């Protein structure tokens, strides 16, 4: 057996949903969807190190909301890898959380994907990319997106992906009001009357020219989240008040992002929003297609 190359330092980016339409539900609890997803310049840092027999997870940041037990998605990803590769685990995982938890930004899924890719590389790539994708889908619907890297148009439950990196990398301001919204609860409260049931959207044209994401901004889950969390609407109004060109909630929320014409405008808006709303997490960042 090849000796693993450890430690490994990994970077797990957050994402935003530029477009999200729910097109149906399934007996297994998942929902069919169409989504245009794009990574952003905000990431967790993960260190994989050699350890004693077993898997241990240590989390720095996250406000105590991220478990260090078998419930941690990075732990589950490591366990899935070792089982599939038939390797005895001896691993320490350290996660430095920068991505807000339960925020619609895919932080846990991104951590899981980074661990799968990092362990596969460290052990000489015993698993194929398709095997990693299959393992990822068993962990969560967003994990295959992060395994594939870059912006993508997603269908199915998020596992059918087509690369779409020709998106203009607009600067944006990300605002998390600090009130967690659990994905399962948002979907549970989804009323099909609030969405265009059965209607599907044609995917973007995959052309060489950079696509302006602003006309695409749409999220079926936003009215649901706003009915559950008043802060989502408050954040929307605040971003619009500071001149955002377009505003949308990401994923199942409650994080809301607003696009700005330039980095200076985004930085100014982030500064003043932070001053007026010290309880909110406000970050100026950008799309990274």
Q: Can you walk through the features of this model?
A:
With 289 residues, this protein is an alpha+beta fold. It has 2 domains: 8-163, Ribosomal Protein S5, domain 2; 171-286, GHMP kinase, C-terminal domain (Alpha-Beta Plaits, 2-Layer Sandwich), CATH 3.30.70. The chain is 29% helix and 28% strand. The protein has helices spanning 73-85, 107-122, 129-139, 143-148, 183-188, 222-228, 230-241, 263-276, and strands at 8-25, 31-50, 54-60, 90-96, 152-155, 160-163, 171-176, 218-219, 246-249, 256-259, 281-286. The strands form 2 sheets. Strands 1, 2, 3, 4, 5, 6 and 8 form a 7-stranded mixed sheet that branches. A 4-stranded antiparallel sheet has the order 9-10-7-11, covered by helices on one side. β1 (8-25) and β2 form a beta hairpin. α1 packs across α3. The protein is globular and about 60 Å long. The model has no long low-confidence stretch (mean pLDDT 92).
C-alpha-based Rg, rounded? 19 Å
What is the class of the largest domain in the CATH system? Alpha Beta
Count of folded domains: 2
Give the ordered list of helices and strands. EEEHEHHHEEEHEHHEEHE
Instruction: Describe the global form.
Output: globular
CATH architecture assignment name of the largest domain: 2-Layer Sandwich
Query: Would you give the CATH topology of the largest domain?
Result: Ribosomal Protein S5, domain 2
